[in-house]
Structure formats: C-alpha cells, structure tokens
Amino acid sequence: MGLIMKKILSMLALVLFLTSCASNGKSDKSIEDKESTNTEIEEVSKANEDSNNSKQEDEKEDESQKEANVGNQELLIDKDVKIDKDNVFYIPNFYLVQFDRNDKLVDLDGNTKFENGSMFFEKVPGAITLFVGRSTDNNEYGIYDLVGKNLNLLFRFAQNDEFHPIGIIGNKVYGYHYLTVLDEDGNVVDSKNTLGYFDIENKDLKDYTGQFSTNVTSIANTRDKIYFINNESGKNNLYAFSPESDLSAEPELVEEDFDSYDIYATSYKDGPETINEYFKADVEGIHISDQVWAIPAKADGLVDIKGKYILYYTKSTGENPSDYEQNLKIYHAYDGDMVFDENIRGQKYLQKTLYYIDEDNNIGEFEIDLQ
C-alpha cells in the first residue's frame, strides 16, 4: 500500500478513535510648469528618472507582496479580530465546531455527535480560512472559504474524485487529486492519483498528467517548490514544480534514486531569510536535522510540520475526555524541545497565536510562530 493511502487511512482511523473515545504607496510628484525651456527639459528628465525609480520600487514591492501572499496569509485578516466562543474552531482533519447558546460544542449542523454531521473537513495548510470538505452523503469534495460562520463553496470536484490539500502558494491550492473514470453504468473503469491544484482567482483546476504522473507516492510543498515522489519499477525519484508552473510541462528532477517513499517539507523565516527544506521519511520516522520523529500508527494519531515545529495529535490523556478531544504536543523540530502539551477540543491559528478549546471548554492562547 502506498504511503499516500497510509496518510489518508491514518486520518480515517483517527476518526474512529475520536468518535469512539494596498496600493503600492506611490508618491505622485507633480512637475511644476516652468517659464524656461531648459528648466522644463530638466524637469521632464527628472520625471523620467523618478518614474523609472518608482517602477523599480513597485517591482520590489510586488516581489515582496508575492512572498507575503505565499508565506503569510494573515495579511488578509483584520489585526483587531477577536477570537472567542463566537468563532468556529477546527478539529484537525475532521470537523469544524462551534459553541451553541447553551455553551455546548456542536458542529456546523448543530450536532453534538459530530459524526452525524454532513461533512468532514481538512484545512488547507498555510491558509487561514480555506478548507476542503467531504460530504458524508455522497462523498463529494469541495473547496470552501470560511467567512465568519458561513462556508462559501469555491469549487466542487467531480463525483467520485477526491482531493486532499497539502498547501497553498499564492492563489493555488495544491493537493493529491484522485481521479476516477466511470462507464455508462457508473462502474469505475480507471483511476489514478496525481498532483493537482485549484487556482482560486481563475477558478481553474489543473492536474499533472505527464510522464511521471503515475505511481505518485507522496507530495509536499515549501514556499518555492512543490515536490512529489514517483516510483517506477521499485525506483524512487524526487521531482519538483515551481509555483509558476501550470503543470503542463515536465518537472525538474531533484534527486534520483531517492531512498524514501514519503516526503515532508516546511518553510520558515530566519531573520530576513526564508528557509525552505524537505525531509525524507521512512519506517523510523521523519528525519529532520539530527532528530528522527516517529510517525504515529494510523490508529493512534497524526503528525504535521509547520514552520520550525512538529505537531503530534494523539488520543487525549485526560481522565474523562470528550469523544472528540485530542492531545496536542508541539516540539521544536530541530532541537527536540517540547513547547506545548494540552488536551484540546478544537483550535484556530491566527497572528502567531494558537487559540484552542481546553478540557473545560475555555479558550486558551499560546503564542507560537507556525508560519
């Protein structure tokens, strides 16, 4: 079984244990009318120089804005926003939840038993308000924007297709895209999984269908690359696309004979510099610097990497946990230090702060840079 399916099965298995237990800022400088022709020439020349300098500054700001859009989706969020019990929170890879008038935790349909709700959700890594939802009725997938307590459908995938997000770069939501082909009787005659993206701005879905699009075992992204592993005849190769690619051309070969079926990746700021790294994962775990981080068995939980940190979601360690409570441990991925250990019932990350619902249904805060 490929590691892509292991990752997805890990998410499904965790359900079982949960349910069982501006403008560019140009300063327009007007050119004053002068009586002297020579003065006019000098002013026009200076205006051209100022225009060129302005264009260069605009280009720098555009590049800076591109990086900001990639690395910090919080720019789109009001800095004065208040996180309290009127907000919607997320149980990773499963549910969106909120408090009702009686201070009880319910899903968006009002169910106290979240498995009775109409959808499961996966948050788009790197985005603040974007989720991929799966209908429990017909298994249809869609990309949604959570505005306040309202879910706005941005795109609905074809019936029997699946999409599992791995990240966002600019306006493109990347992920595993499972495509199925049906005959006239509705029977599956062909299927494949590949790398794809949905362009939010252009409302356009693109898939990689080239030479190395079959036997994709793992996908991950940094701010500057989208990586995937292709396995052909028992040989793994690591390939990458740039965010500018529409996936129509063939990717760059990054590593031949890549000795792993699975890959993880992260990006973070180190002063003014952006660090982009990918990591191999094997039966021992994820190899990050001198650390090896074990990957939980599929029935026990899941692991995620954000910025410099690695997050473990496992069964609650509380004496009488709610059915949907998780234990979240956060470690510094490079030195191994644990920085957070709480049983939580939902979370929301905004402005370098992790907001979470604790065991007593209170809202806790923990400052941490996960971007």
What is the secondary structure topology, with strand pairs?
Blueprint: H1 3-20, H2 37-71, E1 89-91, E2 95-99, E3 105-107, E4 119-123, E5 130-135, E6 141-147, E7 150-156, E8 162-169, E9 172-182, E10 188-199, E11 204-207, E12 216-221, E13 226-232, E14 235-241, E15 252-255, E16 262-270, E17 273-281, E18 286-288, E19 291-293, E20 301-306, E21 309-315, E22 326-332, E23 338-344, E24 347-350, E25 353-357, E26 363-367
Quick synopsis:
This protein is mainly beta and 371 residues long. The protein is built from two helices and 26 strands.
The N- and C-terminal alpha carbons lie at a distance of 32 Å
Helical stretch count?
A: 2
* Helix-strand sequence: HHEEEEEEEEEEEEEEEEEEEEEEEEEE
| Rg, Cα atoms, Å | 24 Å
User: What is the molecular shape?
Assistant: globular
- Overall strand count: 26
- Oligomerization status of the protein chains: single chain
Helix content: 10-25%
Structural class: mainly beta
Percent of residues in β-strands: 35-45%
Contiguous uncertain segments of 5+ residues: 8-52, 59-76
Write structural notes for this entry.
It is a single chain. 14% of the residues lie in helices and 43% in strands. The protein is built from two helices and 26 strands. The strands form eight sheets. It has a four-stranded antiparallel sheet, with no helix packed on it. A four-stranded antiparallel sheet has the order 8-9-10-11. Strands 12-13-14-15 form a four-stranded antiparallel sheet, with no helix packed on it. A hairpin with a 2-residue loop joins β6 and β7. The longest helix is centred in the N-terminal third of the chain and has 35 residues.
